[in-house]
Amino acid sequence: CKSYSSDKPSDVARHMKTCNTEFEMKFVGGLYTNPQTPNTPFAVYPYMITFDFESMLVPSGKQLTKDLTEDKVHIPASVSIYTNHPAFPNEIFILSDGNTQQFIKRFYDTLISLANVITAEVGQQLDPDDRNHKKWNQVPVWGFNSAKYDLKLILGYIANEISKNRQAHGTPFIIKQKGCYTRIANEKINFLDIRNHTSAVCN
Length: 203
Description:
By secondary structure, the protein is of the alpha/beta class. The protein contains 5 helices and 7 strands, in the order αβββααβααβββ.
């Protein structure tokens, strides 16, 4: 439509519903790049780790109360881990051997190993004054719907690992909102749910 122009997508969408003339969509060009701050070569963390758990139901038979018996229990069975750091081009897959705590320990140790490589490289690109800043030494670990599912599934086990390593990896930090664990972190890794940082229409 040649008679209407606006920089707001919502205004354009509203006009298109009532406009009787033909219109065309044009891409004005340009490429988005992350802005750089004066003291660092990047404005956002350049690398990330992602993970996804698969789970299963196993028989329990645990007597919870006099009249209530737990029939089955939900446990993690495997996890896939991936990072965009070029030193790790392949997905890492860990399968549980039935000992859930040992399984989660392997998961946690793998994350820390990846984080150590990532932070070492990031530190080389920073000025000496910025290398010890917390935000550059804490690698984001992204999950999809992990606040409602994955982190709840492994909460007791991962909390145990983080607590055991608090002297080496820093004090644990947890944010819980409406029954969801939106953040679990220490000074090395930071568990986040991508769904809490994207538009509601994303799927």
